[in-house]
């Protein structure tokens, strides 16, 4: 998952959780405030009603035992306005119940007998059942509790408020969620953008392109970008010094190597008939040749780095060049007991430096032959694909370890499975430089079942 996507999801998750918590807290606060308001309202109404009941008894000079006689009239008067009022005696027996002046027959629910009993002790008490509040208060006459007055208050209005609030919160959450998503995408991209730039810088550094990066920031990312630029400058300077050193050493070695090579060839004729000296001179000549080849390769790369290596381009019949190259390799194929199987489309031309493109092809074919098993075969194909010529070289050799594939074009680098086979590690680096100079591409992959596939793409003319 990309960093920007991850940041966006983090922001969105945190926001939605916060909205859920805030919404829950708001609903609970409204519910709590609503219940407190209902409770205060019922307390006020019950106090007024209790006073009314007590005054009615006193005015009519009735005692507590006459409460049952006037209870229907009292509930009828008190319930005006769609309220439900109930009056109970001291034994919690229902004396009368009315709704908006109309008498009702009701059955007292068991859970609320505790509420009524609590009211007989002179306390306010209430319970909630089926979205109705059952609020009980004592009826006092001359300091004594003679019964219980119960209000049944419906909560549908409070529930409507809570439902409406929920809808508003849901709608707000959707709108806010959309806004925060857009904002999260913007913030994530804003945060990740300089990180992407630094990633591109590291990728350029991996390709040895040490172009400085400039991020006009004063935060940690800005400090990191400046550190990257400084590191790139130091690496570029180090690599340049290293290449200059190799070029200087190679150039200095060339003259004495030429002399050694010349004297070793002269000594070949001078020591004939002396087996021990002939062997020594033979090895001297071979090693000086190998060392001279290495020096020439290093000098070639140093000239390419300095853009001083000349390329002489002309229209080349690459099909014919490949046939001639394969003929030159016949002796080498006999040595390694490898067969070359060529399928070359004729009369395909490219714009190339014939000598250097031959060198590149020879390097690749030599590797394919050298790393193939005895009695193995190397397949070569040359064909046109659109406006590009494709050269494919396929072998059944040891292949390249997956962890080495991205390093094989580095100078002096050799795969971990080729240590026992001679080589300098410069052939593929030189080949890629030559192909790149021809505006082509070079790709090497492992072949299913073992071996490698080398593919060169060159512009056809």
* The CATH topology of the largest domain: Beta-Lactamase
* Envelope shape: rod-shaped
Q: What is the oligomer described by this structure?
A: single chain
Beta-strand percent range: 15-25%
Low-confidence stretches: none
Question: Please, what is the CATH homologous superfamily of the largest domain?
Answer: PAS domain
Structural class: alpha+beta
Q: What would CATH call the class of the largest domain?
A: Alpha Beta
Following the backbone from N to C, one meets helices and strands in this order, namely HHEEEHEEEHHHEHHEEHEEHEE
By DSSP (H or I, 4+ residues per run), the number of helices equals 10
What's the Cα radius of gyration? 49 Å
Q: What percent of residues adopt helix (DSSP H or I)?
A: 55-70%
Protein name: histidine kinase
Catalytic activity: ATP + protein L-histidine = ADP + protein N-phospho-L-histidine
GO molecular function: ATP binding; phosphorelay sensor kinase activity
GO cellular component, one term: plasma membrane
Report on this model:
- Keywords: ATP-binding, Kinase, Membrane, Nucleotide-binding, Phosphoprotein, Transferase, Transmembrane, Transmembrane helix, Two-component regulatory system.
- This is histidine kinase.
- Its main location: membrane.
- This protein is an alpha+beta fold and 461 residues long.
- It has three domains: 158 residues, 2-Layer Sandwich (Beta-Lactamase); 86 residues, Orthogonal Bundle (Helix Hairpins), CATH 1.10.287; 146 residues, 2-Layer Sandwich (Heat Shock Protein 90), CATH 3.30.565.
- The chain is 56% helix and 18% strand.
- It contains ten helices and 13 strands.
- A hairpin with a 5-residue loop joins strand 1 and strand 2.
- Helix 1 packs antiparallel against helix 4, helix 4 runs parallel beside helix 5 and helix 5 runs antiparallel to helix 6.
- The longest helix is centred in the first third of the chain and has 57 residues.
- 20% of the residues are buried.
- The mean pLDDT is 84.
